[in-house]
Write a structure and sequence with these properties.
Elements lengths: L23 H10 L19 H12 L4 E6 L2 E6 L19 H14 L21 E3 H4 L6 H8 L3 E8 L9 H17 L4 E8 L9 E5 L3 E6 L5 E4 L4 E8 L6 E7 L4 E3 L2 E3 L4 H33 L1
Parallel strand pairs: 1-4, 2-3, 5-11, 5-12
Antiparallel strand pairs: 2-4, 5-8, 6-7, 6-9, 9-10
Amino acid sequence: MVIDAYGRENLHSVDLNRNFPQLNTIMYRNEIIGGKNHHLGYGEDMTNYVPEPEVQAYIEWVEEYPFVLSANMHDGDLVANYPFDDVRSFNGRPSYTMSPDDSLFRHLARTYSRSHATMSTRTRACSIYSRTFEDGITNGASWYTVKGGIQDYDYLHTNCFDITLELDCIKFSSESGLEKEWIDNKDALIQYMYQIHMGVKGIIASTDDMPIKGAVVHVGGPGINHDVTSTKDGEYWRLLLPGTYTITVSAEGYFSKGFVVEVVENSVTPLNFVLSREAWVELEAITVHNKMSRASLDHFIWILVVCTWSIYS
């Protein structure tokens, strides 16, 4: 329930777009000491975190229904804002803060801004911030720092890529202006949604044709320090710009497998993986067999000793 004049706070007077888990701190630490680069915010990472009910509902939703691409929409300016929103620097001052997928996010933001009626071409600043943005896009943290925002959360907690869209200089558009807003944004929305059809996607399964959940998909050559994982149905997708990549899949209990793949413009490349189980079962059987063989050998030696003793006694 939105009740305040700015439309940002809930009944508890909490700004919901500052209430998501602050996963950037974990990500930035892991970049230095080594650690996961994806699906942060599970288990011990969230020991002291208590979300607002609306945020908790959103978290449960995106965990149950995996998404490819999303955008959260605001008013108050006219710009496509992409991750990261939270700066790496300790002083908290606004500065360009790249995500591992910075080039891809710039492409996504630019796709929206250039398809919008005026976002990429306007020359006058909105009165609130007195700033214009080249090509109608901005890195979030270079504009101002946001901790606990939704777009960084989606990127670091799920497989979903999310940007923030500021759609109007007027914070609260009047009803009479909604039709124009739809006309200005319609083509941009369609072009943005179409971006799910880029990169690679496929199914990850075992040799007995069972889907593998939670397999880690890593992009190399050029390397991107942000992995994605497969769903409970073995599905995976990885948005990528055109280029040549090495896609490697790993899963607990299975041998890893990798392929070199060419990603082309305006198309998604299908790439399925069939993983073989690790040989621990076979190794265990061999170990048992070897123990039995050694026992048989010991028994044979004992018989030989007894027979030899009998001959010479």
